Amino acid sequence: MPSKASDRIKAMQERAVSLAPQGPPAPPAADSAEPAAAVAAVSAHFGATLDQLVRSRTVQRIPVEQIAPDPRPEMHQPRLLPAPEELIAHGQPVPAYRELVAELLALGQSLKEQQIQPIVVYPGSAASPSVRYLILVGQRRWSAAQLVGIDAIDAIIVDPPTPAERIRIQYAENEDREEFSDMERAWALQQMKQAMDDAPWESVETRLQMSRARRQQLLRLTAFTPSQQQQIARLRLQETQIRRLHTGVRNEELTAAQVDAILYRLSQIAAERTAALSAAVAETAGGAPPRRLGIDGPTIARLVARAQRTAAPLAVVTAVPTPRWLPPLREQFVRTNQSVQRAIGRVETLGPADTEGLLSDLGQLITSLTGLMLSLQGSEDAKRET
Amino acid sequence: MQVYALALEKGGVGKTCLAVNLAAAFSRLKLRVLLIDLDAQGHATHWLGAVPASIRPEDSFLGILNGRSIVDCVRPTDEGVALLPAHPVLASLPVLLASAPNSGLFTLQDAIAQLGAPSPHYDVIVFDLAPARGPVLATALAAATRCIVPVQPEDLVMRALQALIDSFGQAQRVNPRLRGISIIRNRYATRSAGDQVYDQLLRESYREQLLKTVIPVRAALRDSAGLQQSIFRYNGPDAGEVRNLFLDLIDELINLDGAA
Question: Are A181 and A90 in contact (CB under 8 A)?
């Protein structure tokens, strides 16, 4: 009964359209309580364990210059770790990274004695022709090795990971480090969402084994501008520490310039404390790297309050109201300009008298326009000098 | 996008037959359908008429594992179903997946995510799986929105069913989109008293998951496989009856998974 079947197919086609929309309705929440255990348990259930990645592979000693971070922007680690050449200028640590360099040098010294854990790399190439492997895990140890001049480091070579796998692995690795900051976590979240082709946040949470509340908390840090985010990562400010600051930004109570000023002040405080601490450490003859002294919530709340108090007068000074005469003048300029453009094509139609009259008008106009321009430039210069 | 995984650790229950005809049925409704053959035997690939000589290892899921885009590997078939074919070297897939980062748990999910951007390429994706538990089943269930299990009223099948329901529960922990598991009585006949005991067990213990449609043993399905045609292209005795049964089946699935 083919005809009957085809009728039926026609009738069903309309209903089938409901299958087409992307993204099914929200499913019941997955095991959000303890997703970390879930991935491990699932892998175990299906007969594969997480450390299988490196289990059957042997450790090799690879020259440092054959290894580099992945140069592709989407493959950058969600982490503030500049290239070794950006950390040192003229043989001295760049001031903003002084503490980081000190930590890396200490790590490098311990690597010189013994490298306990191999780094993990995969085959690939970067700008430098000597590079044969790209770093999956261990960029910090690799940077440290370069800074102290170690020639070769222990590494395990694995297959190239997909972007999402790479982010997950690096995130898990960094999560164990005490100095992994909330800003870097927020970057990892954004990268993972991108790597999963803009999958819903709940999938990203599952993959990074993070609760929904924590994810939302971390993403608040993305309200800052990119350069502010860099600064926050450099200062290793945690989300709870600067809650007052990002609340101010998200409620539009603080301008970007005010936030810049506050962050600048925080970096000054951090530098002072680091200097004081490293002096103390030097006196007691300890070789330990300087550690960040906490910048506490009250300090930040105070700075935010101060910025908000000074905000009102600041706005009056910068925003001079437009005088009433200016808009009509500018409109007139636009109209005049159009008429002049049109006149250029029609000058042949003018008699000698008209030509002379027009030339005289133009002369006067040019004189006044030049005068206006000079006085505008003069007042600009005067403002700059004060 | 609905993603159906045809799975059971027990072999010979009709996963391939269901996968091919389910895909063909959806495609008759003018939905864009992709069948991903994850079984190294490549029976679904054969059934859909792909020529073995034209399939290179990198056209199969192995290519995806090595970073190829799924769009570059997919080929059209005479059934109107797009196909990611299998290749005999897929036999190495469990080992390769196990040594991939994270045991390859999310490899298939990531590949399918590519198909969803910027706009979805397919409305329905069907996985045909080999009869085994392992990293391949894991990556399939981590990517699926529904698991479909063909069963017969037999002891060994029932044991495998229980094991699969365990696996399904595990997969749901890492895949919040995996909405449900549906049991389909396939190649079904209750002849002996023993058969009827298991039949009753299915209807009582698995009432929630059991689909109403029952696909009986039919020569039309075997013959159509030999001719490399889905039941919707095959023109033999009983073809009309079996077609209607497959339409019943997708009707039930539309009810379960439709947006309405």
Answer: no
* pLDDT mean values, one per 10 residues, chain A (386 residues): 68 76 42 57 64 60 90 71 77 76 86 81 82 88 89 86 82 76 90 85 86 91 89 85 87 86 84 70 45 65 78 48 81 85 83 89 88 80 63
Chain A within 8 Å of B250 (Cβ-Cβ)?
Answer: yes
- CB contact (8 A) between residue A197 and residue B113: yes
Query: C-alpha angle A6/A10/A13, rounded to 5°?
Result: 130
Which chain B residues are within 8 Å of A45, Cβ to Cβ? 138, 166-167, 170
Q: Does any domain span residue B229? A: yes
Q: Please check whether residue B103 is in contact with residue A46, taking contact to mean a CB–CB distance below 8 angstroms.
A: yes
Q: Containing domain of residue B154, as a range?
A: 2-245
Strand partners, A133: A67, A123
Q: Is B137 on the interface with A (CB under 8 A)?
A: yes
Domain for residue B187, yes or no? yes
Q: CA-CA distances (angstroms) from residue A278 to A100, A124, A267, A282, B169? A: 13, 40, 16, 6, 54
Mutate to test the interface with A, among B115, B137, B174 (most CBs of A within 10 A): B174
The domain tally of chain B equals 1
Classify residue B102: in a domain, yes or no.
yes
Least confident among A288-292, A320-324, B81-85, B254-258: A288-292
Taking contacts as CB-CB distances below 8 angstroms, the residues of chain A near B181 are none
Which CB contacts under 8 angstroms, 24+ apart, belong to A31-37? A31/B172, A31/B173, A32/A205, A32/A211, A32/A212, A35/A205, A35/A206, A35/A209, A35/A210, A35/B173, A35/B174, A36/A209
Compute the mean pLDDT over every residue in chain B, rounded to the nearest whole number: 92
Lowest-pLDDT range, A113-117, B183-187, B217-221? A113-117
Instruction: Name the token pair of A337.
Output: 């300009």
Other Cβ atoms closer than 10 A to A320: 7
Asked if residue B228 belongs to a domain, the reply is: yes
Q: Which helix (H) or strand (E) holds B35?
A: strand B33-37
Note the ipTM here.
Answer: 0.72
Distance of alpha carbon A47 from alpha carbon A37, whole angstroms: 15
Spatial separation of the C-alpha atoms in residues A52 and A57, rounded to whole Å: 9
| pTM (predicted TM-score) | 0.54
Closest by CA position to B114, among listed A354, A196, A221, A105: A196
CATH number for the domain spanning B68: value is 3.40.50.300
Q: Which residue has the higher pLDDT, B147 or A137?
A: B147
Picking from B107, B120, B173, the nearest residue to A42 by CB comes out as: B173
Question: Nearest Cα to B215, choosing from B152, B166, B135?
Answer: B152
Nearest CA to B181 out of B194, B167, B195, B193 is that of B167
